Structure formats: structure tokens, C-alpha cells
Amino acid sequence: MIRKAFVVILGAALLSACASTDTTSSTTRTTSKVSIAAASPGTVNCTYVTGSSPAKPVDPPSGANVASTGTVAVVITTNEGPITITMDRSKTPCTINSFLSLAQQKYFDATSCHRLVTSGLFLLQCGDPTGTGSGGPGYTFRDETYATDTFPAGTVAMANAGTNTNGSQFFLVYADSPLPPKYTVFGHMDAAGIAVVAKVAAGGDDGSISAGGGKPNIPVNILTVTVG
User: Could you tell me the CA-to-CA distances from 77 to 21, 109, 159, 181, 203 in Å, in that order?
Assistant: First the structure.
């Protein structure tokens, strides 16, 4: 699986979370079951479970009345160029709520993308302030996956270390990748963003990760992540 370090056949587990399934419009999805009071119309409640020290000082997001309609865009400004990501709140509201909270707290600012995979899978993994693939925000949350999820170029998804272990690490897919629907897909890059990641991928990786891939030979530093 794609882990905090990364993926399926490559090993270093991506981040997932314990979940139940329900069927909506014939689509099976993993939902975030919560114990908070009923949400207001157009919102859901999310559960964020604390359990470790964050890699960088940050507070867990509020899980009450999280918006579950509309789209939101973020811009990841890197040393190699901007990557604009559009997110659909109706599909992965709890994941998006966490990502936006971390962005607004500047958790991703001044961090590096620690893993590049250029064979079998095609992606750049980011979101760990330690740059080791083992760091997270000090909390986890459940998967929001669909049986029909695929990972074409432009996909942005959560890395995990198994079911319902999502935290802060995510990966950017620059070419179609054969992954199972076990990773929460919460956004899509624009064409310019795909080109930025593809340019980095063309430089290759150092092969330092035994499970597959390594640090990109062209360093990718996230300068800022801005919302809207």
C-alpha cells in the first residue's frame, strides 16, 4: 500500500482508516461514522482521533458541521511552480476539512516532498514536515473511498498506513497509476500542476526507499499552500 512513505506493491504503507460502507446512488463509499450530534443541512460531522505528537505544531480541525457541498481550490506553491488543486466537498468532506485546516495553520509551508515513484506507479508524495515519510499531524481520520475510484494523471489522494489511518501525507499522480480504491481521492490537479510534477519526475529519484522510489533528484519544496 501507499504509506506514510507509500503504496501497494512498493510497501511503505499509505494512510487509511476504519470504516463502514453504505450505498448511495449505487456507489459504495467508505464513510466517516461519527458520534457528534446530527449535522446541519449541507454539512456532515467528522471524527479526528488524536494519538501522537504532531510533526509540526498544529491543532486537529473541528469535526462539527463540516461543509459537504460545493468545491474549493487550493494552490500549492512550490520552488518548481504552482500546483492548483480543485476539491469536491460532496465526495470527501472530512478529508478536505482536514487538509484545509492544516493549510490554514501553515502546516505544509516550508516542507519538502519526500518521495517520488517513477516505475509501476507515477507519483510524488508530500505532507510530512520531517521529510522522512513517518511524520503526521498527531491525529488520524477515516477513509472516504469509493469502489469506483481510479488514479489517472492529476489525481490527488491521501497516503496511508492501512485502513482509516489518514493524516497529513498525500500524493500527486502525474501519470495514470494502477492503484486499488484504498486511498481517499480528494482532489485533482490542473494541467499546469501535472506538468510541474512530471518535470520533477523526469529528473528521477535516488532509489533510497527499498519499498520503491526515493527522494526526487530535483528537490520539491512546498513554500505555501493557500486556499481559494
Answer: 36, 9, 20, 28, 19
Could you give the 3-state DSSP secondary structure of residue 75? strand
For domain 20-227, the CATH architecture is Beta Barrel (2.40)
Write the burial class of residue 192 (CB in 10 Å: 0-12 exposed, 13-18 middle, 19+ buried). Answer: exposed
Sole residue written with cell 500542476:
193
Q: Is 52 helix (H, G, I), strand (E, B) or coil?
A: coil
Nine-digit cell at 66?
Answer: 463540516
- Measured CA to CA, the distance from residue 59 to residue 76 in angstroms comes to 21
DSSP 141: B
pTM of the model: 0.85
**Coil, helix or strand at residue 125:** strand
C-alpha 110: how far from its chain's center?
Answer: 17
In order along its 228 residues, the chain shows pLDDT tens digits of 455 444 433 433 343 222 222 222 333 334 444 344 577 889 999 999 999 899 999 999 999 999 999 999 999 999 999 999 999 999 999 999 999 999 999 999 999 999 999 999 999 999 999 999 999 999 999 999 999 999 999 999 999 999 999 999 999 999 999 999 999 999 999 999 999 999 999 999 999 998 889 999 999 999 999 998
The kind and range of the H/E element at 197 are helix 191-202
Burial bucket for residue 95 (CB in 10 Å: 0-12, 13-18, 19+): buried
